[in-house]
Amino acid sequence: MRPCLPYFLLLILAGIVLGVAVGAFSTAADARDLDATAQPAGGVLVPALAGAFGGVLLSLLLYRWYSGAPGVRHRIKRAMRRGHIHMVYQPLANMSSGHTVGVEALARWPHETLGAIAPETFFAWAEATGLGRQLTRYVVRATLADLRIALREPGDFYCSINVTPRDIEDISFARFMLETTREFGISPERIVLEITESLAFVVDDPRTLIAQYLQAGFRVVIDDFGTGYANLSNLLTWGVSGLKLDRTLIRWVSANDWAATVLESVFEMTRRMNIYVIVEGIESPEQARYVLARAPAATGQGWLYGRPCRAELLPVLVSRAASPPASASAPVTPGFCPAALADESSRAISRRPAPPAGVRA
After folding, report:
1. Is residue 77 part of a domain?
2. Do 6 and 153 belong to one domain?
3. Is the pTM value of this prediction over 0.85?
């Protein structure tokens, strides 16, 4: 409500001015033969009050539209059109070597009055207003445009992009992914699709849908494994390339025996299934050593390895990402996007123009 207040006051003031003008004109027309200075004040006051009431009513109607689904949809579309939703990238590190092997693309929407709007918030808005698929395609194009040079270079450097079950169920999305990677000259093998677990699949068996991405060369990973709709049955039947463990498991591993038991069981399961595992939320050397001792082939993600950075920082940091090989007893050295650079990146982003309209959280 607060970001809209100046506009509402302007509407009320405009109603008062219009009311005064109408009242003065009507009074002058009815008594043009009388002295203007002798006209009663009530001849202007009543229309002015009516104009103020009309301004208040119009403000309430506009606010109802503004805070409802049509207004939210309009603001998201405008943010995409003007590039206010931008991408940052968090490193993915090989746990054994410490080298950065890829990045995860993360969408950000800074707001001029509310600050940074949480991705889970505006993605939920997009899904609720029918813009979820359009927003995902916007993210894909923005990511490939940012990383096209790094993803074209020789090597195995890759990028993970979050998609929803609705995207996978969209028949045209597979064609979009192939056409877009071809447009940017990027091999599908350099793209990992992380299926977020905020929504469940509508179709009973998504194996066929996932298979078409795997056959095209994309890798498919179950995101937030252990917290969402994903379960062991899905992992066994969907034929995915890997899974990403939710950050809560590694966060609780030192305080809860059951979390350690779950982690060790998952690591053993992924070894037997020959799929790779990404461990999210690694923030301390102790956590890194714990994972490294049990899953040397795992990929790590977390603030220990780096915070999300703008794409402009990637070429500088990738060259510095080769940290010394880690071991279960050796210290772990953060090698990608240190906190200082990440903070400077955030400050630079916050200076970009933001959507003029407010957003109700």
Report:
1. no
2. no
3. no
Distance between alpha carbon 277 and the CA centroid of its chain, in Å? 22
Whether 52 and 172 share a structural domain: no
DSSP state of 190: G
Q: Is 243 helix (H, G, I), strand (E, B) or coil?
A: strand
The per-residue pLDDT of the chain, averaged, comes to 76
55 burial via Cβ count (<10 Å: 0-12, 13-18, 19+): buried
In the chain, how many domains are there? 2
Residue whose tokens read 């390895």: 305
Q: Would you tell me how many other CB atoms lie within 10 Å of the CB of residue 75?
A: 23
Q: Which domain holds residue 310?
A: 83-350
Query: Both 26 and 125 in a single domain?
Result: no
pLDDT, tens digit, 9 for 90 and up, residues 250-293: 887 766 777 788 888 889 888 888 888 999 999 999 899 999 99
Q: If pLDDT is split at 50, 70 and 90, which confidence band does 343 have? A: very low
How far apart are the C-alpha atoms of 71 and 359, rounded to whole Å? 9
* The 3-state secondary structure of 5-27, one letter per residue: HHHHHHHHHHHHHHHHHHHHHHH
Q: Are 90 and 106 in contact (CB under 8 A)?
A: yes
Q: How far apart are CA 55 and CA 48, in angstroms?
A: 10
Distances (CA, A) of 86 to 11, 81, 110, 119: 33, 11, 9, 11
